[in-house]
Amino acid sequence: MTVRLPADIPIEEYPKPEIFVDEAITLVNETAKKGLLLRVMGGMAIYMHSMEYETLWRNLARLGTKVFTDIDFVAYGKQRNELYDFFQKRGYKTDPRFLYQFGKTRHIFFGGRVPMVEIFYDQLEMNHTIPYKGRLEVDAPTTPVAELMMQKLQVVKINEKDIKDLIVLIRAHDIGMDDHEKINLNVFDFVGLFNEWGWYYTATMNLNKVKKFANEYPQLSQEDKTVVSGRVDKLLAHIEQKPKSFKWKMRAKIGTKTMWYNPVEDW
User: Fold this and answer.
1) Per residue in 100-118, pLDDT tens?
2) pTM
3) Helical pair 246-254 and 197-216, crossing angle rounded to 10 deg
4) 176-234 confidence digits (pLDDT tens)
5) How far apart are CA 56 and CA 71, in angstroms?
C-alpha cells in the first residue's frame, strides 16, 4: 500500500482537531463494546484530560496548524489480534513492512477517519520504558494522568511542544497518592525510577526544564507560574527523598559518561 503520512496531507484536506478527539473517544467506546481495552495517550490525551485549561494550551500555541498528527493508543498485548481485526474493519490499513518490523510491540495504521493511528502494546518502550500492566483499567478514555506525564518525561531530547504539554498537564492536575484527577506519585515506583539511574536522570532533567520554561513564558499568569513551579518542586522533592537501589547507586557513579537511555529508531 501507499502510505500517506500526516505531513503529506494538504491543510485544506486535514481533519479538524475535534475530529481527532471524537474518533479517539469513538474507538475507545467501540472497542469496549467488544470487551477490548484501549486507552489514549500522548499530547492529545493531555489535551483531553485538561480541557479546563484549553485557553492556556491555545495561548502557548501548542495547537499549531495541523494540531494533531495521529492518535496514540496503548492496549494489552493479549488483545493484539482482535484490535488488529477491529481497526482493519474500521477502514484503517497497515503496511506489511510495519507489521514485520514492529508487529509484536505496536501497530501503525493509516487512511481511516484520521491520517494515522498507533497502538502500543503492554508498554511504551522509547528512551525509557513505561509498563502499563494493571494501569489501563484505572482511567478512561486516556491512560492515568501520571503515565501521561511520564510519557513526556522519558524523552531525552525533549522538544518545546512536549514541554508545553507538560506545563498544561501539571497546571491542570494536583499531586497526590491516587489517580483521581491527580498526578499519582506512586508512578515513579511503577516505572522503576528508583532502580534505574538513567530514568531518574532524564525525568529530573526534564522536570527542571518544565519549571524553567514555565517561568519564562509570558502566556502564563503569575498564578500559573507559581502553581506549576510549586508542583514541579513537589515532584522533584518526592523523587529525591525516596530510597534508591544498589543498582541505581552504582550506575549513578558512571553518570552520563556512557549512554543512559535507549536510542529510538525513527521509522
Assistant:
1) 677 678 999 998 899 999 9
2) 0.94
3) 70
4) 999 999 999 999 999 999 999 999 999 999 999 999 999 999 999 999 999 999 999 99
5) 22
Cell of 234: 513537589
| Cα–Cα distance for residue pair 35/33, rounded to 1 Å | 5
Sign for the CA dihedral angle at 136, 167, 19, 106 comes to negative
Torsion of CA 110, 111, 114, 115, to 10 degrees: 60
Phi-psi map region of 10: left, alpha, beta (phi>0 left; psi -120 to 50 alpha): beta
Please give the backbone phi and psi of residue 25, each rounded to the nearest 5 degrees, phi first: -65, -40
In 3D space, the residue among 36, 20, 138 whose CA is nearest the CA of residue 79 turns out to be 36
Length reported for the chain: 267
Element (H, E) at 121: strand 116-121
What residues does 130 pair with on adjacent strands? Answer: 124
Contact between residue 190 and residue 238 where contact means Cβ atoms under 8 Å apart: no
